[in-house]
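User: Here's a structure from my thesis project, written as structure tokens. My advisor, Dr. K., wants to see whether a designed sequence matches the one we expressed. Can you design one independently, without my sequence as a hint?
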């Protein structure tokens, strides 16, 4: 019963507006193939990847702000440490997932840039 009440309290703390204002950005739809892309396509992709990275930064900043607010509320409600630890864990997971996805997209784009440059240096 104690475990059930802990889960219900945690759900109440994380439900509602927690992280509700932080909108996860949409990744660029396509990274061009560096072997066949035009310079214009590569430049457009570079702009899209940069914009996406800026949006991820705004998203993670938003997560941090909302997490800090939730932690302050939880502390004022004398929420048990294990439940506060769970709030921390969820925030870290969301942040890390966003950063990992942004890094993967940037890495894919950078690989295509290397291919593009290699192809165009031979001409």
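Assistant: Designed independently from the structure alone:
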């Amino acid at each position: 019963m104690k475990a059930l009440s802990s889960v219900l309290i945690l759900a109440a703390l994380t439900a509602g507006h927690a992280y509700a204002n932080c909108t996860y950005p949409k990744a660029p739809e396509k990274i061009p193939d560096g072997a066949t892309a035009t310079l214009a396509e590569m430049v457009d992709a570079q702009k899209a990847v940069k914009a996406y990275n800026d949006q991820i930064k705004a998203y993670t900043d938003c997560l941090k702000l909302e997490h800090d607010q939730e932690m302050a509320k939880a502390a004022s409600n004398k929420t048990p440490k294990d439940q506060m630890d769970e709030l921390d864990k969820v925030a870290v997971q969301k942040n890390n997932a966003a950063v990992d996805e942004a890094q993967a997209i940037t890495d894919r784009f950078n690989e295509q840039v290397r291919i593009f440059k290699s192809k165009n240096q031979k001409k």
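When you compare it with your expressed construct, this may help: The mean pLDDT is 86.
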